[in-house]
Every structure is written in structure tokens, then in C-alpha cells.
Amino acid sequence: MFRTDRRTAMKLAAASAIAIGMPQIMVRAASAAVPMPEVGNPGFNRFKLGDVEVTTILDGLRPGDGPHPIFGEDQPADAVAELMEANLLPANRFVNGFTPTLINTGSDLVLFDTGFGAGGRENGMGQLAARMEASGYKPSDVTVVVLTHLHGDHISGLLENGAPAFAKAKHVIGRIEYDFWSAPERMSGPTEGNAKAVAANVTPVADSATFIGDGDEVVPGIRAMAAYGHTPGHMVFSVESGGRTLILTADTANHYVASLQQPDWHVRFDADKQLAAATRRKVFDMIATDRLPFIGYHMPFPSVGYVEKLGTGYRYVPETYQLDL
């Protein structure tokens, strides 16, 4: 218990009035014009894995309608919308990102996939070369270009002005994938568009390319693994250094909620939908069980994360500081 005399009460009232007024004064002071600098997102993220350096680079972002029916093509639109809303995402709009990856082994600078190239720049894509330079590398520094598969968003940056964009690099391509898309019968029907993109972008470098298959080594510490379904020859890659392992999952899962929490849902761009779903489970069961970090080409930038088992699927967990320790 305490007593307050009249003079003390008046002092307290005055102090309260000042305290109440201060936020208003501060807000008014802060409302003076502050310029917004014209600086874009640097678009790259770098970390160490053992003795190698890994850099993910954002080739661009594409907002659009969806994710249904691109994801959950075999599901009612309401079911996909409900899943999005349950994960604090818009029901009918999504943003797709495209993330090539650089691995500096000390002996080689290995680039996985090449983005949209010049053809995508008017729509904000094709930022790989510029953002690579912002990160400290030039296209001429790349010694190996690896193509996880041959869809347009992975191969359209191979050439620049008709010449190889990575002039000093050797190209590594999956044999099954290239044989499929370069077959003459692909030049008609539903495969025609992508087959023409392969002919325009990949065939010019194919004569000097190295063709690989399941289990083959790209450079020491980087090995290919079959992950068929999204395309006939789609592959993922393991990167091992200093006792640590990273998986580059490419397009095994293309939406961090729809394709991971519901791995059996059909995806429009999967060539063999049943096989693609089985591959998703196989790859992400391994990643979840072994608690491995992975980079997904279409995961939210910077595209590095983990998964844990969640019901009949998986929960995506973005990497925070695990790889800094």
C-alpha cells in the first residue's frame, strides 16, 4: 500500500501525457520522405559443404494462376485450394522460381542447368549470367555444365547469340534423356515443342558433350542418380565433401507444398505421372531418413532445405543456419 499526494499525482499525470504523445511525435518525424533505392534482389545465395562452395542463383520468378491444375491435376480444384490455404498460401495464385546451382570444387566450377537465357529476359527471366557475375563468377569461369533433364527452363540458357554461353565448359547430358528428345518421332505431337527447343539449344553442343547414366561420376564427389518420371531420363545428383552430402533434386518435386505434402498428386509436366510419384517418394524418403539438405530447382529461393515425414507425405523445412556450422 502507498499513498500519492496531490503534487505527485500531478507529476504522474504530466509524465503519462508526455509518454502518450511521444509515439505520435516519433511517427510524424519518421513520416518524412525516405527514398527507396533502386536496388534489386542480388539473386544468389552461397554456403560451404565440406570443402566445396555451393551457390544457388535465381534465374527469375514467374507469378501466375494456380497451383491447380498444374499441381494436383487429378484432384478437384477445391482440394488443392484447401491445401494451399492450410499452409497460409493463396488458393488460386502462386509464384514459380527457377534456380540453377554452381558447385566450386576447387578444381572445377560446375553449373547445374541454365535457366531461360536471352529468350526469357523480357519477362524477367534469364538472369543467370548477370547474377552469376554479381556473385563473383563469369560464365567463362564455368568448366562443366550439367543438364539434369532437357525441359526448356533448364536448357534455354545454353546458348547466347548462337554460341555456347559457357564457352570454356564441357557439357554433361543424360544419355537416356537426350536420346528421347532427339529422336525424329518427337518432332510431332505433344513432344514437338520441347523437341524443337532441344534441337535449337542442346544439339549444337551435343557432338562434344559427355553422356552419362545412373551412377556415373561428373567430377570427383558429384554423382548422378536415376530419377525418372518427370522426363524419361531425369536425374538427380549427390554432392559429397568433407563427410557431408547434398542432393540436387532438380524437378523431382516442383512445389514445396503440393508436391511434397501430396507426392502422389499428378503434375501436369510429369511425363509418366505414376513413375514420377514413385520417384518422389524414393528420393524424399532417402532425404528425410538421412536428414540430408537438398536443392530443388523450383523450391522457394534460395531453394535449399530439408524434409521430414508428415502423414503420407513430407514437410518442407527451409535451411536456416544448419550449413553455416
Explain briefly what this protein structure is:
With 325 residues, this protein is an alpha+beta fold. Helices cover 28% and strands 26% of the residues.
What does this molecule look like?
With 325 residues, the chain is α+β, with helices and mostly antiparallel strands. Helices cover 28% and strands 26% of the residues. The chain has a single domain, classed as Metallo-beta-lactamase, Chain A (4-Layer Sandwich), CATH 3.60.15. Strands 1-2-5-6-7-10-11 form a seven-stranded mixed beta sheet. Strand 1 and strand 2 (52-57) form a beta hairpin. It is globular and about 50 Å long. Residues 1-6 have low confidence and may be disordered.
Oligomeric state of shown chains:
single chain
DSSP helix fraction: 25-40%
Order of helices and strands: HEEEHEEEHEHEEEHHHEEEEEHHEEE
C-alpha geometry: globular
